[in-house]
Design brief:
The chain is of the alpha/beta class. It contains six helices and six strands.
Length: about 190
Amino acid sequence: MKTIMVDMDDVLTYGNFSEILEDYLGYKPDYDNIKTYYIQDILGDKKVDFFSKFKDMNMYENATLLPDSYEILKELSKHYKIYICTDYIWREIIEFAGNNLKNKYNFLYKKLDFIEPKNFIFVGDKSIVNCDIKIDDKLNNIEGAKTKLLFTAWHNKDLTEEELAKQNIIRVNNWKDIQKILLNSNT
């Protein structure tokens, strides 16, 4: 049975961190003009203050799954071995990463009842994970897979189809796209 690595943030869930950031800023940043992967970089000198408040928050307390992700992932689990692989380390406050790990685990355990918790992988470096198919929004996290699905996000939207084709990467914009590729083909 082929294996699939699925990223959590901005692939299964969306907006948890950005909503907290928006509350802190008091406005919604122009995501179309943010080029960095780490959205907190827009905070500049306010970063220390933000993370002093953020470190104790559970950003998954009110989180939801992206539309169609539960149903399609459940269907995929009948044909593939699914691993949820997520980074839990905040580079600004590494010493509080355990809070994030606990919150991520609890969210996955409650929301994805058909996936065994032993298939939850918490890492800081996804390059160690070897799966046939990788679904992620960060380009370097899908390296090494036979089938690479890049989930569209603010930080990768400017990559052209030509650039992606050179690296054998397929762009997906939602879970229906993933369904078409993985359930309606011989991938």
